[in-house]
Amino acid sequence: MIKRIALILTVIIAALLMLTSCGEEEKQMRTPGSTSVGGAVILTGTEIDDEWEIVEPQVYFSANEEFYFHFHNNLAFDTDQVIIQLIDNRDEEILAENVFAVDPEEKELVDMVWFGKEGMYTIKALVDEEIRATREVLIE
């Protein structure tokens, strides 16, 4: 009887350890990434400096935590609008799409953003309907 209980406890502990390690592997596999066209980039972080630059770039945030995105196009916009989309990576649903009025000679855009629930999301910047940069963020 004692051997049977010990065996059951060993199986339960092994199963719990496997579940815990699988969760860690899944988290490691979900490292946020980014894309760039022509050197354009989106950085995210909780603080900006006097020149509107992200002080310490990061990609992990909490649900409902406000943070900044800084889109640097790497060349003049040559248009008066830039579109920023917020996308839920689970189903590729566009949660929000904001059209920003910009000076065609500028090449940077900064604003705040937040996501209400945990998950992986993408911030996408479009100039003249062309995707210039994306940045994934993980909301934990």
Report on this model:
The chain is an alpha+beta fold and 140 residues long. Helices cover 20% and strands 41% of the residues. It is built from one helix and nine strands. It has one helix at 2-29; strands at 34-36, 41-45, 60-61, 67-72, 81-88, 93-101, 108-113, 119-127, 130-139. Strands 1, 3, 5, 6, 8 and 9 form a six-stranded mixed sheet that branches. A three-stranded antiparallel sheet has the order 2-4-7, with no helix packed on it. A hairpin with a 2-residue loop joins strand 8 (119-127) and strand 9 (130-139). The longest helix is centred in the first third of the chain and has 28 residues, at 2-29. The N and C termini lie far apart (44 Å).
Low-confidence stretches: 21-29
Radius of gyration: 21 Å
User: What's the helical proportion of residues?
Assistant: 10-25%
Query: How does the major sheet shape up?
Result: 6 strands, mixed
Compute the separation of the termini in Å: 44 Å
* Count of DSSP-assigned helices: 1
Question: Number of DSSP strands?
Answer: 9
Oligomer: single chain
Q: Tell me the overall shape.
A: globular
Let me know the average pLDDT: 87
Structural class by SSE content: alpha+beta
- Encode the helix/strand succession as letters: HEEEEEEEEE
- Percent of residues in beta strands? 35-45%
Question: SSE layout and pairings?
Answer:
Elements: H1 2-29, E1 34-36, E2 41-45, E3 60-61, E4 67-72, E5 81-88, E6 93-101, E7 108-113, E8 119-127, E9 130-139
Parallel strand pairs: 3-9
Antiparallel strand pairs: 1-9, 2-4, 4-7, 5-6, 5-8, 8-9
What are the salient characteristics of this protein?
140 residues, alpha+beta, 3-stranded antiparallel β-sheet, 9 strands, 20% helix, globular
